[in-house]
Amino acid sequence: MTFGLLHLTPLILEFSQAHPDIRIDLDFNDRRVNLIEEGMDFALRITDRLPETTVARRLTTCRSVVVASPAYLKRHGEPGHPDELTRHACLAYSLTSRSSWPFIIDGVAHSVEISGPITANNGNALQEAALQGMGIVHEPTFIAADAIREGKLVPILKAFPTPVLDMFAVFPGTRFVPQLVRAFVDFLAARLGPEPYWDRGLGLE
């Protein structure tokens, strides 16, 4: 939902203004929809893998970053290793990371148990809690990028990357993909690019 509001809406409006005869019906949510049952032409999904039978097109990369406010780090110190997160207040996204966060340590996947005062199913809510100094949050860069650039949130544990996900346009496998839908997906792929614009200048590589 947050990606749709922050990044997809401006692109949809741009496309709609260029093609005023096209009708666009949006459904912003974080659930996994059944495209055929709900009569949808396509959906955007952020994941590390899709079922082999899925008809999809990769659009861009989705990175995540662990961040905290300067005020929180001043009060509680900055963890030097992911395992130290067990001693910190962590703000959890309930749909994927309620009790653990993933890291890559020495090339090996590593899961760290976390806990904290706030769990939510929306990244904007978690970022607001982090901005108010309530804890550390593991956020997609498409949410956190502006706050990082403004110095309101500070990336931490940069030596221990989190797994990189991909964003896909997913189509109903048993239906013909209309030409206009393909044109819109082509438009999204061109605007988002293989390396998304929101990651530029963050220095997270």
What does it look like?
The protein has a 5-stranded mixed beta sheet with strand order 7-4-8-3-9. Strands 1-10-2 form a 3-stranded antiparallel beta sheet, with helices on one face. It is built from 5 helices and 10 strands; from the N terminus they run αβββαββββαβαββα. The longest helix has 17 residues. The protein folds into 2 domains: 94 residues, D-Maltodextrin-Binding Protein, domain 2, CATH 3.40.190.10; 93 residues, Periplasmic binding protein-like II (D-Maltodextrin-Binding Protein, domain 2). It has 205 residues and is of the alpha+beta class. The radius of gyration is 18 Å and the shape is elongated.
List keywords for this structure.
D-Maltodextrin-Binding Protein, domain 2; 205 residues; alpha+beta; 2 domains; 5-stranded mixed beta sheet; 27% helix; 3-stranded antiparallel beta sheet; 5 helices
